[in-house]
């Protein structure tokens, strides 16, 4: 996957005040280091969302759950379930979902996953930055 996001820094500048002059120069390593950290962190978050959402995804044949893996470009920041019926199942909590394979199956599976794993994902994501 080609990184779509790149962190950039502004140009350096010279600041003068009360006869004193200071020059701001950005560390040349800042941009590539932060871009790599952000990219690795985003990949982790995308993978964690797929992993932790899986038990909440309604399952009959497994196609809906697998469509999340197939429809997601890990690192893009967008997890997509690409079956034609994914959006309909996601938005209708009144449906009665089988719990034969996934005991936690429900609509709005991402929201349910966040309730249980949000803090864990955020804590792990923070470790990608120094």
Brief summary of the model shown:
With 130 residues, this protein is mainly alpha-helical.
Give the strand content: 5-15%
Ends distance: 24 Å
Major sheet: order of its strands?
A: 1-2
Beta-strand segment tally? 2
Evaluate the radius of gyration: 21 Å
Class inferred from helices and paired strands: mainly alpha
Oligomeric category: single chain
Helix content: 40-55%
Chain-averaged pLDDT? 93
Q: Topology as H/E string? A: EEHHHH
Given as residue ranges, the uncertain stretches (5+ residues, pLDDT < 50) are none
Q: How many domains make up the coordinates?
A: 1
In DSSP terms (H or I, runs of 4 or more residues), the helix count works out at: 4
Categorize the overall geometry: elongated
Largest sheet: 2 strands, antiparallel
Protein name: Capsid protein
Organism: Ruthenibacterium lactatiformans
Structure explained in plain terms:
- This protein is mainly alpha-helical and 130 residues long.
- 43% of the residues lie in helices and 8% in strands.
- The chain has 4 helices and 2 strands, in the order E-E-H-H-H-H.
- Strand 1 (13-17) and strand 2 (20-24) form a beta hairpin.
- Helix 1 (30-53) packs antiparallel against helix 4 (109-126).
- The mean pLDDT is 93.
């Amino acid at each position: 996957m080609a990184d779509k996001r790149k962190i950039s820094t502004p140009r350096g500048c010279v600041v003068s005040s009360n006869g004193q002059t200071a020059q701001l120069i950005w560390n040349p390593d800042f941009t590539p280091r932060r871009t790599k950290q952000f990219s690795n962190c985003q990949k982790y978050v995308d993978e964690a969302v797929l992993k932790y959402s899986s038990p909440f995804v309604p399952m009959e044949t497994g196609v809906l759950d697998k469509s999340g893996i197939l429809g997601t470009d890990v690192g893009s920041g967008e997890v997509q379930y690409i079956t034609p019926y994914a959006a309909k199942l996601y938005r209708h909590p009144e449906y009665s979902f089988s719990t034969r394979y996934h005991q936690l199956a429900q609509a709005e599976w991402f929201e349910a996953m966040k309730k249980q794993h949000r803090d864990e994902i955020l804590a792990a994501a923070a470790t990608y930055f120094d």
